[in-house]
Design brief:
Blueprint lengths: L2 H25 L4 H4 L13 H14 L20 H32 L5 H21 L7 H9 L2 H7 L3 H13 L2 H18 L3 H4 L1
Helix pairs in contact: 1-3, 1-4, 1-5, 4-5, 4-6, 5-9, 6-7
């Protein structure tokens, strides 16, 4: 029954992720997300049937790593102050928001334990919030278009190389599905997830219990 905790946390986390993208774009000059009603924590405009509902349910029921996505927040790079640099900031904003949330939840868990409060429901919510908000940004930071890591890498590359690199974006989703289905993706990022979660929660037992 852990999915009863996990799926609401995942949905909130992917909305937080997309909100951060849109908010950063607005700060850098593009208010497209706000104009289109996407700069909100209301889940309805963000929900993607496959990425926000079907995939998380399948993952939760089969025991696979819980991952998903929302509808991407629209960003018009031509309205940004400096498109190549600012798209890098926009790409980094989503993963950073999730990591900050993971750290905040870990601190809350630490302090309520310090206060002698022991509640399994609160512990479960906070524990899964940490795990999901570490897993989600690390997944997105893999530099395969259209994941956020590709936006960051493209902003660091010389413009001509970045242009050629981003040409693989139409095929990126197939590359990602292949890497996930073969298990290579999880062998790549799960050791890092375990390490960060262990650091935040003070021991591996919090992840595996």
């Amino acid at each position: 029954m852990d999915w009863l905790y996990q799926i609401p946390i995942l949905i909130f986390s992917i909305i937080l992720h997309e909100y951060a993208h849109g908010r950063m774009a607005e700060l850098r000059g593009d208010d497209t997300a706000r104009v289109m009603g996407r700069l909100t924590f209301n889940p309805i405009p963000h929900i993607d049937l496959v990425g926000s509902v079907i995939l998380p349910l399948i993952a939760a029921l089969t025991g696979a790593p819980l991952i998903g996505w929302a509808k991407p927040v629209p960003v018009n790079p031509y309205r940004l102050h400096n498109p190549s640099r600012d798209m890098m900031f926009v790409g980094a904003a989503g993963p950073l928001a999730n990591l900050v949330f993971a750290v905040a939840c870990a601190f809350i868990l630490y302090f309520i334990r310090l206060a002698g409060i022991y509640d399994d429901i609160i512990f479960s919510f906070l524990k899964y919030a940490v795990v999901i908000n570490v897993l989600l940004p690390l997944f997105n930071l893999v530099p395969i278009p259209p994941l956020d890591g590709s936006r960051i890498l493209a902003g660091l590359l010389p413009p001509r190389i970045a242009y050629e690199y981003m040409k693989i974006e139409p095929y990126g989703i197939f590359i990602i599905f292949f890497l996930v289905s073969t298990g290579f993706f999880w062998r790549l990022i799960l050791p890092v997830v375990y390490f960060i979660v262990g650091m935040l929660l003070g021991g591996w037992r919090w992840y595996v219990s």
